[in-house]
Automatic annotation (TrEMBL):
Domain of life assignment: Bacteria
Keywords of the record: Signal
Signal peptide: 1-17
Name of the molecule in the record: Uncharacterized protein
């Protein structure tokens, strides 16, 4: 009972971070969670347009911990598979414990309209569950994304999450947030990539994020990032070993404390389809 009451007291923090398309993957976590202009298997969640640039099938898993509490574990997987026309993807995430939990399952599709522009869409199923008489609630959401190279090293990106303002619960007209993100990435060289991002939840003040990635050699990636609302600072390290990539990140939020994340990506061998 004490544990349940303790968790209820923490629900405002959970509600702040839950069912809001929270970002995952150690790479973006180490870059201030600025992800709208990145592309890898985690584009199934961050910006589906990024799937359009992938050349081979990719799979990934991640685990994230918030505030060093096992009740705040956040984990999931993603898979992307290029086709002759477009790329399909699937993802699943789960957050919380048997007292309070959230899950999201999604399917996505991306298509390159040219060598410079890619667009993507996703359909998701969300479920929120609370122990005892509170029960569970579910809803569907959609996502739309676009990425465009203005030059070989400069990209603009946009993403819209939940344009229909899907309702999660009739009580108090509880809705899943609608979030708009705009961003850019600029590669100063083959070794240095910078990202900037602005995010606006329709019901909250805008947030801004920035990150940098330094790739001193073929194996090692060093990352750092900052953000606002809440203020955060992050850093991360990535290791690439043949077809496997491991990314580790840590960030500190002034209201939510420490977050730690570990993710793995595996690029399957096979004939390139695009």
């Amino acid at each position: 009972m004490k544990r349940f009451l303790f968790f209820i007291l923490l629900l405002p923090l959970v509600a702040w971070s839950g069912q809001d398309n929270s970002h995952y993957g150690g790479r973006s976590a180490g870059m201030g969670h600025a992800s709208v202009s990145l592309f890898d298997v985690w584009s199934t969640h961050h910006n589906q347009a990024g799937l359009g640039w992938l050349k081979t099938p990719s799979a990934g898993i991640f685990i994230q911990n918030r505030n060093l509490l096992k009740e705040f574990n956040y984990m999931g997987f993603a898979y992307a598979h290029p086709l002759k026309t477009g790329t399909i993807g699937a993802s699943f995430t789960n957050f919380g414990s048997n007292l309070y939990g959230e899950s999201k399952a999604g399917i996505s599709y991306a298509l390159k309209f040219s060598e410079f522009i890619s667009g993507g869409i996703a359909i998701n199923y969300h479920n929120t569950r609370i122990a005892y008489e509170y029960g569970s609630h579910s809803a569907m959401t959609a996502e739309l994304g676009m990425q465009a190279y203005l030059t070989d090293n400069f990209m603009l990106a946009a993403h819209l999450f939940n344009p229909t303002r899907s309702k999660l619960n009739e009580y108090n007209d509880e809705r899943i947030p609608t979030i708009i993100r705009l961003g850019l990435s600029y590669a100063f060289s083959d070794k240095v990539l910078t990202v900037l991002e602005a995010q606006k939840d329709l019901l909250h003040s805008p947030t801004f994020k920035a990150g940098i990635e330094y790739n001193p050699n073929d194996m090692l990636f060093l990352r750092a990032g900052v953000g606002t609302s809440p203020s955060l600072a992050s850093f991360g390290v990535g290791l690439k070993m043949n077809q496997m990539k491991v990314d580790i990140a840590a960030s500190y939020h002034n209201t939510l404390g420490f977050w730690h994340e570990l993710s793995f990506q595996y690029h399957l061998k096979g004939k390139k389809t695009k």
